[in-house]
Amino acid sequence: MIRQRQSVLQLDDQDALERAVELMTIPGPPGKESEVQEYIVRVLRRAAVPESWIRVDDCHRRSPFGGETGNLIVTLPGTAKGPRRLLMAHLDTVPICVGAQPVLRGHYVRNLNSASGLGADNRSGTATILTALIEIMRRELPHPPLTFLWCVQEEVGLYGSRYVDVSLLQKPTMGFNWDGDLPQRVTIGAIGARRYTAVIQGVASHAGVAPERGVNALVVASLAISELHRRGWHGAVRKRDGQGTANIGIVAGGNATNVVMPELRIEGEVRSHDRAFQKKMIAAYKEAFNRAAQAVSNVDGKRARVKFKDHESYRPFRLREDSPVVTIAEEAVRAIGLEPERYVANGGLDANSMALHRIPTVTFGAGQRDVHTTRESMHIPSFLRACRLALYLAVDGRIQERTSS
Ligand SMILES: [Zn+2]
User: Fold this and answer.
1) What is the DSSP track for 101-114?
2) Which pLDDT band, with edges at 50, 70 and 90, does 404 fall under?
């Protein structure tokens, strides 16, 4: 039986690695994934995947980010019995990865272009599920019904997975997602986030001639932010009734040094595993801006106005530890010779969106190191283990062992 298992897992390492490296050379920042998508479709055609199995949805028409193409979806009818399984990975890379020049260095793929990121996040995951599909086609391995999903626009807010055309997925009962470092890491939950925009409308005035007639929007903002900082509502937030993180990420305002700054726009986010606590953090921000606006007035007694808006960016989720998807995921990790490590992530994942679509999804790593930086690399042995794991899950290794023993 061990021998049978090994034979299922025997894959063409060289081929898999070349695919990952090639994928990293193709630019594909969020919203501009056409070229990398076309590469995958070419690979699928070469592997004799029937045209009727290949679809691209229209998620980019629903995404607030827009974008040039939708998610790539490939559905395979089962050649063995079993509930449909979903294998997924996001296609886009953070924008700094455009221009990557991947090169093999020992156990790693590194980047010759020191000014860019490598894009192992998430071309390693992209290559992982593509490899599983190619191996199935090449070796005609029996498998349950399968859906492969390459998502766009993960890095800007999980938009591809969130706005996926669910009807094209053909009702998978569980999902497996690749995005991260360690292949044995079984991520069963992830944090959620809310984003807010605060627009502070002060009063413009000539800064030299009549400064007393102005209300400086930045003065209002700075009072609010210093209060939030002092009270522990910025950065790592730890309160008696919850914890999370909060960040002010974008500030824009002012257009001349001789004008009292009339308007300032602030964008930020809060994250927590607890949705109620997210709202509490948001409330702290809203109240602080409103209080600060009351504290500053011009000679006429005029004050700034605050327009505050927030929305849920993605929802936290937590799979039950005894749910079938977790059990199957952990069995598969053991089958490839590793010990599973359960994990809950503090960043959003496409699995957050799948939870919304009621497709319970675990996430594994695929050898990504130092993501979103110019030091990014891909650890080759971890990537190849991820490929084996994906293949094992795609063909339902338990079926193979049963039928061949
Ligand atoms: Zn990623």
Assistant:
1) -EEEETTEEEES-T
2) low
C-alpha of residue 367 to centroid of ligand 1, in Å: 11
- What is the Å distance from ligand 1's center to 103 Cα? 20
For 192-314, CATH number?
Answer: 3.30.70.360
Whole-angstrom Cα distance, residue 124 to residue 83? 26
Taking a C-beta distance cutoff of 8 angstroms, is the pair 111, 374 a contact? Answer: yes
Q: Could you report the per-residue pLDDT of 238-281, keeping only the tens digit for each?
A: 999 999 999 999 999 998 999 999 999 999 999 999 999 999 99
Statement: the pTM of the whole predicted model exceeds 0.85: yes
Beta-strand ranges (E) seen in 168-215 are 174-178, 185-190, 192-201
- Please state, rounded to an integer, the average pLDDT across all residues of the chain: 95
Assigned CATH topology for domain 2-190+317-404: Aminopeptidase (3.40.630)
284 to 34, 139, 194, 239, 306: CA distances (angstroms): 41, 58, 13, 12, 14
CA gap 361, 368 in Å, rounded = 20
Q: What separation in Å is there between the alpha carbon of 122 and the centre of ligand 1?
A: 5
> Confidence band (pLDDT; 50, 70, 90) for 403?
low
Query: Which residue ranges make up each domain of the chain?
Result: 2-190+317-404, 192-314
- For ligand 1, the distance from its centroid to the CA atom of residue 381, given in whole angstroms, is 19
